[in-house]
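Trying the structure run again after the queue cleared.
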Amino acid sequence: MTTTTPVRVPAPRTPDHDTLPATRGRAVTSLADPALVSRALRSGTRLAAEALTGIAFDDPCCAARQRELVRWTTGVTAEVRAHPGLRRDGDVPLDAVLARTDLALALFAREVSAGAPALALALTDLADLVEARLSAAAGLPGTARRGARQALFALPWLLDACHPAEQAAVLRSASRGELLTLRLGARRHAATRDAVLGCAR
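Done. Tokens:
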């Protein structure tokens, strides 16, 4: 009989987890749930925008935090790009803000003080656009296609967007491959999230 090692879920650190699922809509039950994807896209883009805005106004940003912010922003923007529910026909606004984000992220990766203001503005615009499109849509149809490397970021990120009361149901519905990816990516995700939040030790 094959046993599955339990996934150790890092403690959530984002303010969204202070609210019970009932106050934010129905509880989610799987990593592919459109409500969970929407929640993660909203919080992921906004968290990056707020972190970079703080750094632009002289919040501390050591080399480790800089590196993890680049990882977080790269992972979140990949999810925005890949999700068909966020895209419109001839989507100049989304493509333009993603292009600005890419340029600013490359600058930030080289030099924090030079890149943080531009990246903060680009990410704030991206977060606003994502929020507007999610608010205008009844749901978020479609599923983002992910390679193995992106899944190592995305699946722990999605699980982290669950309220603790939702996590057991989400883990029960996960496939063996998803559970393995969660186990492999959980610790790295927690370190990245905490660095983005400024909680790195």
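The chain has one domain: 34-197. Worth checking whether this holds up in the mutant runs.
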